[in-house]
Each structure stands twice: as structure tokens, then as C-alpha cells.
Design goal:
The chain is α/β, with parallel strands linked by helices. The protein has 2 domains: 191 residues, 3-Layer(aba) Sandwich (Rossmann fold); 120 residues, Rossmann fold. It is built from 11 helices and 15 strands. The strands form 3 sheets. Strands 2-1-3-4-5-13-12-11 form an 8-stranded mixed sheet, with helices on both faces. Helix 4 links the parallel strand 3 and strand 4.
Length: 364
């Protein structure tokens, strides 16, 4: 008898939970009779890198505004999910967007999210566009694309900037796929150009780097190449300064991922091409109080302004896939981006310097 009561209670609770979920996901029909196209956004809105997602969202909202999206043929429903840069949440979000929400398109950010989405949507009639990954495999398959600057574009420019200036480098790499990929691009070019180096690994979440710094300094490097994200970057730079080590630091786009440029003041580095001028000012104004992040804003803006006209013509999966694949070049806000054989729209490279607490372009 007790077992039956428990079973009945479980059934009631499950039914109630399903009912609550359905009610919470209920939305008024505001499509105005237009065909509905759903675009899922998987971005880090909270956590250590939440300022990145909030910045990118501002660029997406600005692109929607510039397209006057409410006046178009389709009704575009953007479904924003916060993945907090956490693999667990990324898996859950992909399942929700493809299952419950049944989106037409998923837009995500970075290598980790991009790889997971590419794997998750395989065989499903969903288009995937990744922003700013370091790994071209985020664009594997006919339904996945990316808009980014790859390490193989950044690294030659970085190493070229070191030749003739430095002879002994300390390569400091975050133990994460995107940084490891970049490190592997850097090592052979340093070797080829006669720059000695030692490679050091820092794990995500590591907080005390003082012993590592002492170990690095024993090798007497004349430059640090630092491939760390926030917060490891700020911790490393602060503890280096506190130890009185004045060896200059450089990097690829990792320095633009910081939310505190003061710790890397004076550093020169190589970065993705970035949006500038009036458009940047408008995005930053929209993001005021939420994020002052500038990298990947142009990538996000481009993807929306490239994708929406295609969706206006057809929201059928195969049509979107074909049209994107046929777009070999696109005149974006950072110049012309060209699609390579892997499905990556390659944006350009810029050289930057941290000056008075801000990252500025080095004009040649």
C-alpha cells in the first residue's frame, strides 16, 4: 500500500513539474502572423567571462537594430541562454535549443562551445555559426560555420614581431584546448626563427603562480608569451609584478580577453581585427555598465547581418546551408572576410598596445 502511495506521489510530482515547465516556456504569439525563425544564442553571460558574452550580445542587438529586424518578412525569435563558460551548461543548452525550442540556428562563442555544438547537431536540420574559436573544427560538417581569426593567422604576425628583438622566450599556456592549439602553432615558428623557448602550463583555476614565476625567471627569458584567459591572466600578471619581474609580455588575442588592462600596461600583442569608429562607439554605449569588451563584436555583428538576409529568402535548413556555403566572401564591418574550405569566415589580424589602461591599434 505504501509503495502505491509513493508511486502515485511521484507521478503527481512529475506531472506538476512538466506542467510548470510548459507554463514557464509559454510565450504570447507576437509574430503578427509572420513565419517564425528561431535563433538560439549560447553565450557566457555570468561567471568569470560573463563580460565577454554581454559584450557580444550588445553587438548582436545593435545589428538587429540596424537591420530594422521588426520590419522584415519573418519574425525572428532570439533565445538567449547563459552557458557561464561551463561545459555542463553548454550540453544542457544544446539539448534545450534543439529539443524544446526547435531552433533553426545556433550561434555560440569560443572553441569549447563550438566543438560541443558541432557534435550535438550532427544529423539534425540545424545551422550552427560559431564566433571567435581558435579551432577550425568548430565548422566541421555542412551545417556548421565560423567567423573568426585563426591562430595560423595571428601567430606568424606575433613571431615576426619578436624576430631581432628577443632570443629567449617563456611560453606560458593555459591547459585548455584553444590555448594549447595556439601554443602548438607558436613553438615551431620560434624554433624556425632561432628563438629559444621553454613552455610552461597553467591549469584553469590556478591561483598561486609564484613558484612557477621563480622557475621561469631562472631561465632568464627576455620575453613572456602569455596564452591565458581571465582570471588566470590577471593573477599571473599581478604576481609577476609583485615579484619585481619586469620582463615584457606579449600574446595573441588573449590579452583582449582581460577585463583589467592595468596589469598588462605597455604590452604589445597581436589580436583579431576589431570593429572601430562609430559602430564600436554605439555598441559600447549600448553595453555601458554591462561590459567594455571589444573583441568579437565585429564578428557577431557580421554574422547577424550576413545571416538574416539569407533567412529572409528561406528558413529551410538546406537552403541556409547552401547559401552560407556559397558565400565565399562577405563585406563586413572589419573589411572583407573570406570563407575557407573548412567553412571558416576568416577575419583579419591587428597589432595592438595597452596604453593608459586601454587597448589601442598600432598604426603601421
Amino acid at each position: 500500500m505504501k509503495a502505491k502511495i509513493i508511486t502515485t506521489l511521484v507521478i503527481i510530482l512529475v506531472a506538476a513539474a512538466i506542467g510548470v515547465l510548459a507554463w514557464r516556456n509559454r510565450r504570447p504569439d507576437d509574430s503578427g502572423g509572420k513565419p517564425v525563425v528561431k535563433i538560439g544564442l549560447s553565450l557566457p553571460m555570468t561567471g568569470n567571462l560573463g563580460y565577454i558574452g554581454r559584450g557580444v550580445l550588445g553587438a548582436i542587438e545593435t545589428a538587429k537594430e540596424d537591420l530594422n529586424i521588426a520590419s522584415l518578412k519573418n519574425h525572428y525569435k532570439f533565445i538567449l541562454e547563459d552557458n557561464a563558460w561551463d561545459v555542463k551548461f553548454m550540453h544542457q543548452i544544446n539539448a534545450k535549443l534543439t529539443g524544446l525550442d526547435k531552433v533553426n540556428v545556433i550561434i555560440d562563442l569560443g572553441t569549447m562551445a563550438g566543438r560541443l555544438t558541432t557534435q550535438h547537431i550532427a544529423g539534425k536540420p540545424i545551422i550552427h555559426v560559431n564566433l571567435c574559436a581558435s579551432d577550425k573544427r568548430v565548422a566541421d560538417g555542412k551545417q556548421s560555420f565560423a567567423h573568426t581569426t585563426l591562430p595560423e593567422q595571428e601567430v606568424p604576425v606575433l613571431v615576426d614581431s619578436l624576430i631581432g628583438k628577443y632570443k629567449n622566450a617563456a611560453l606560458v599556456v593555459l591547459n585548455a584546448e584553444h590555448a594549447v592549439i595556439t601554443g602548438r602553432e607558436i613553438e615551431p615558428l620560434l624554433r624556425k626563427n632561432g628563438i629559444r623557448f621553454h613552455t610552461y602550463t597553467i591549469n584553469p583555476g590556478e591561483r598561486d603562480m609564484r613558484i612557477l614565476l621563480e622557475k621561469i625567471e631562472l631561465k632568464k627569458p627576455d620575453v613572456y608569451i602569455v596564452l591565458l584567459n581571465s582570471p588566470e591572466l590577471e593573477i599571473f600578471a599581478r604576481q609577476k609584478k609583485e615579484r619585481g619581474f619586469k620582463t615584457p609580455m606579449t600574446s595573441t588575442h588573449y590579452f583582449s580577453n582581460t577585463n583589467d588592462f592595468d596589469w598588462i600596461e605597455g604590452s604589445e600583442y597581436v589580436d583579431y581585427a576589431q570593429v572601430e569608429g562609430d559602430l564600436l562607439a554605439r555598441i559600447l554605449k549600448r553595453n555601458a555598465g554591462k561590459s567594455d569588451y571589444t573583441m568579437c563584436l565585429g564578428n557577431a555583428y557580421d554574422v547577424i547581418t550576413m545571416l538574416i538576409p539569407i533567412l529572409e529568402e528561406s528558413s529551410a535548413y538546406q537552403d541556409i546551408s547552401d547559401r552560407l556555403a556559397q558565400t565565399k566572401a562577405y563585406g563586413g564591418v572589419m573589411g572583407v572576410v573570406r570563407q575557407d574550405a573548412a567553412g571558416v569566415f576568416r577575419a583579419g589580424v591587428s597589432r595592438r598596445k595597452v596604453q593608459n589602461g586601454k587597448s589601442v591599434v598600432i598604426r603601421e
